[in-house]
Fold these 2 entries.
Entry 1:
Amino acid sequence: MPLTTRSATSVARMAAASSSRPSLARCLATVRDSPAKPEKPPTAVVMLNMGGPSTIPEVGDFLSRLFHDNDLIPLPAQSILAPFIARRRTPKIEEQYKEIGGGSPILKWTRAQGEAMCTLLDELNPGSAPHKPYVAFRYAQPLTETCLDEMKADGVTRAVAFTQYPQYSCSTTGSSLNELYRVAKKQGYGATGDVEWSAIDRWPADQGLVKAFAHNIRAALQAYPEARRKDVVLLFSAHSLPIEIVNRGDPYTPEVAATVYAIMQELGFSNPWRLTWQSKVGPKAWQGPQTAKAIEGLAKQGKKDICLVPVAFTSDHIETLFELDIEVKEDAEKLGVHLTRAESLNDSPIFARALADIVSKHLNDYDAGKIGAASAQLELRCPGCTSPKCARTKSWLARGGKEAEA
Ligand SMILES: C=CC1=C(C)c2cc3[nH]c(cc4nc(cc5[nH]c(cc1n2)c(C)c5CCC(=O)O)C(CCC(=O)O)=C4C)c(C)c3C=C
Ligand SMILES: [Fe+2]
Ligand SMILES: [Fe+2]
């Protein structure tokens, strides 16, 4: 059995620390003769998300992968059109990333959230410790390929696919799960029962998530003078979806509404509120009302104190830091609106605890046989979905990462 990194390091430390020991060679021989107890491979918590370009030179590849994704943007002749659209769009999007400091902070925040989550998980669930966070991004490094390589090198045999989108959409979490299945099959690791998979595919009204959002909203409201505070309009903003996806029965819209309602309940319905939708791309019809238009309308009604709450993403990204903080804010100021924004969940300790609690409960319920490997919601695909690809992925996950018998 080869020496693990940890046992080799301790041998070197042993040799250096004690001059009374015979020799490094004899010491190494002794360790080789009495096989080291194999280290337990970690329980993998695979954090699925879209990712973002960490640097400006990565913007082109990020957009190219995004426009190639048939689950997000189904295009005719996709392999020809996608690189063309991505190339045309790259200079504009590069400028936006330059304005927010030269890249997306998604990787930084995901890594920080994953580390905090797994430290807490080791305390909460010593039985499945050690827990290790892995990141599988859909459009930026670390991609699913990289994630599975790391898991294989660590000898992982038990993994939880944990979407970092609280609300499920076939175009986001669905796309990540399809990619996981595809890449695991291609790489010959993780798709044949060698890894036992289960999935946390949505958590829109999780109590910890709701408390973390409510905490940041209360903090934002504190910045208003007390006399004006209760009249501040809370404007929840989520990334929009094309109407044809909503009409296919995609669960995202109702799940976002569930998150918002649960937050308002936690706040005791302290303020007036609305849910609006941002970041429409292209000429087709998307779920409305649009956030920028809603601010215009509210301004006309004399509502001049508005606090934005991005509610469908758990860290800062281009749509909070550029679209809301720069573009929407400038327009709001011209209308005489005093616009603020609740901080994103980023390094919130309440949020890290929420992530750990979600995984801990999932592992316990799964081990106790109270839940299956995938939720009943995941297995029921959209009424309008006819994709055989989706059907295969979902049944593979429901079987804990094993193909159906032929
Ligand atoms: C829950 C969040 C998101 C949903 C739902 C979503 C759907 C969706 N997005 C596009 C097209 C684009 N999205 C782009 C960037 C982008 N999208 C989200 C989140 C959701 N998208 C985020 C967080 C980001 C930015 C990532 C970052 O860098 O920080 C882009 C690229 C930017 C641009 O060119 O404008 C596109 C394009 C569609 C078509 C869609 C639903 C089908
Ligand atoms: Fe998007
Ligand atoms: Fe679907």
Entry 2:
Amino acid sequence: MSAADAVTDSLENLRARFIGVRDGKPADYIPQLALADPDAFGLALVSMDGHRYSAGEADIPFTLQSVSKPFIYALALSLLGLDEVSRWVGAEPSGEAFNAISLEPDTGRPANAMVNAGAIVTTALIPDTPDEPAFDRILRCLGRFAGRELDVDEEVFSSESVTGDRNRALAYLIRSTGTMPVDPVLAVDRYFRQCAIRVTAVDLATMAATLAYGGVNPVTGEEVVSAEVAARVLAVMATCGMYDGSGDWLLRVGLPAKSGVSGGLIAVGPARFGVATYSPPLDATGGSVRGHAALETMSQRYGLHLMLNPALPGSTVTLVTTADDLPSAPSAEHERVLHEQVGVVVAQGSIDFTAAERVLYALDESGPNGGSVVLDLHDVTAVDSVALAMLHTGLARLLSDGRRAAVVDPRDLLGPPDVVREGTGQDLPRYATREDAVEGCAQALAGEG
Ligand SMILES: NC(=O)CC[C@H](N)C(=O)O
């Protein structure tokens, strides 16, 4: 037993709670999928540190089906850019079933890349290169998301090929509207192949975690797509990933997700985790019954809904120290100066837009009587580029208002001194420790007084 088994326990718990659900049945319009074991139920979760947790049948292979769609959309966005991809496929929820004729009346574009019509087009957009056919590129890309080489279940592929007339019809219809970039037969063949790529629930959780982690596979460390692409894919998953059940899913579960008719389901907690379930019996929207129930319960139990962002008082980024926190001074007069005229703002953790706003506000509030203020970044782990620009501008304003400031920045998070000078327009004394910074400010004040 290890401490982290507590995470596995929560997956086991969800499995135990829903394994007895007997609703739904495996897809049979692709005959090979009807052979799946309806009792198989696997769950897997991958953290942003690449830690993997699983329960039940998380290592048995099944085919991706529609769970492939967001990843192919990611590949298309990476290769062609949003503007070009958007010429061919839209980003509006269709409110219709996955295999509906979801084509925009004016443009003829499929509504979005999560329904079959849009996915067939997205797949068709992936170009061959002189040394790599498009499908190999697709397979390799999905393998990078999963962190291992993947292969195709040829039996499922042929099974869908011989029965996939509706998708073929869709492809021809799209060609008739002028929004099919390649031959429809070729496009559908490639799409069926992509749907027949074999994965496990653990693979899927890793793929989902890669989207959560800004396009970097947290297990292998490889950057598969850019952070912008990952964010866009998640946006389309959030609005369209569960087809005509997308609104209700976002309402109740609150996570970008994608279902597939083989019983796979992924959900993404941006910057938090990727999770996947596998259980073949499906509901009316073509999503896994047990997977849906388990993820909905998981989201509610652990407060994972994206729109649920309670302020965490314990993780306050900054604090204005009181006089009592300042170091003791050599003389009573010196101590009075320290206590009355030097404020200290301590920032901690990683600083983004929201945290930077707090820091700047605290700087204004600090420094009794508009005296000196020390910004202590000793416990800051990272400053993103937006926050960095905000800190530079804020400190510059502070100095141009005539306030004295100093920073404790032992790791040069604000950039080298000349960058800071440029940002602030004036010298901003920098120190390695809070004691030195406070002392420096007090001496400067004493010198002025
Ligand atoms: N929703 C799905 O998983 C559908 C995928 C399947 N290959 C189809 O096109 O019908």
